[in-house]
Structures are given as structure tokens and as C-alpha cells.
Design goal:
Strand content: 25-35%
Number of domains: 1
Radius of gyration: 13 Å
CATH class: Mainly Beta
Number of helices: 4
Strand order of the largest sheet: 1-2-3-9-8-5
CATH topology: OB fold (Dihydrolipoamide Acetyltransferase, E2P)
CATH superfamily: RNA polymerase II/Efflux pump adaptor protein, barrel-sandwich hybrid domain
Order of helices and strands: EEEHEEEEEHHEH
Structural class: alpha+beta
Largest sheet: 6 strands, antiparallel
Number of strands: 9
Shape: globular
Length: 126
């Protein structure tokens, strides 16, 4: 299972990469494996301010539909529009081309509820 060390993780199976005041968010390899073949991603919250833990969209797979949760509070600035035509990018490359949103998180986002790669690995192996 690929769990990149440089990322932080939520207990809801989202990953987050901090890039200054901006963040890139997607779902983990574990999550996309659990969901199966992803067929649709909906994010209708671009330009909205949301709190950590709030739903920012949904992801639909052959088996189920799941909510996507904000890993940190902030304004959603961008949706990966490549997912409109190729939602399977999340299955193929969840940490790269399969990213879902970008967030403007401000100068000092609360990361206290996020976990490291090692902690995430322990969570999914429990």
C-alpha cells in the first residue's frame, strides 16, 4: 500500500499536501481500493469557505457513493476538472493526477486532527 511520507492524512481517508498557504487534497490509495472503480466525482463547493470535517463533495464508485470531507478549514479554490471526463484518474494515480481539490487554508491552518503516514498506516491496519 502506497502511503507517501510527505503527506498528512485525515481519519476519513483524505490526504493533504501543504504548499505554502495552499493545499492539495485527494483520497488515499486505501480509500480508492475500498471504493472500487470510480465513475463520478462531484464538487459543487468551489469558492466556498468550509470547516474541517464538512462535506465538500461526493465520489461515486460502482459499489457505493461516499462523501468527501474537508481535512482542514479553508476556501476551495479549484476542482480537478480532469476528473469530469476521467474520474478513473483517482484509481490510477490517487496521489498525483487524481487529486480532487485545492484549498486556500490561510497562514496557520489547524492540523491537530491530521495524522502522519505512520499513524495512517496503523489506522488502516487496525
Amino acid at each position: 500500500m502506497n502511503i507517501p511520507e510527505e503527506l498528512m492524512y485525515s481519519k476519513d481517508h483524505e490526504w493533504i499536501r501543504f504548499e505554502g498557504n495552499s493545499c492539495v487534497v485527494g483520497i488515499t490509495e486505501f480509500a480508492q481500493n475500498e471504493l472500487g472503480d470510480i465513475v463520478f466525482v462531484e464538487v459543487d463547493t468551489v469558492d466556498e469557505e468550509l470547516e474541517a470535517g464538512e462535506t465538500f463533495g461526493t465520489i461515486e464508485a460502482v459499489k457505493t457513493v461516499s462523501d468527501l470531507m474537508m481535512p482542514v478549514s479553508g476556501k476551495i479554490t479549484e476542482f480537478n476538472t480532469n476528473l469530469e471526463d476521467e474520474p478513473e484518474l483517482i484509481n490510477k494515480d490517487p496521489y498525483g493526477e487524481g487529486w480532487i481539490i485545492k484549498i486556500e487554508a490561510g497562514d496557520n491552518p489547524d492540523k491537530s486532527h491530521l495524522i502522519s503516514a505512520d499513524e495512517y498506516k496503523a489506522l488502516i491496519e487496525a
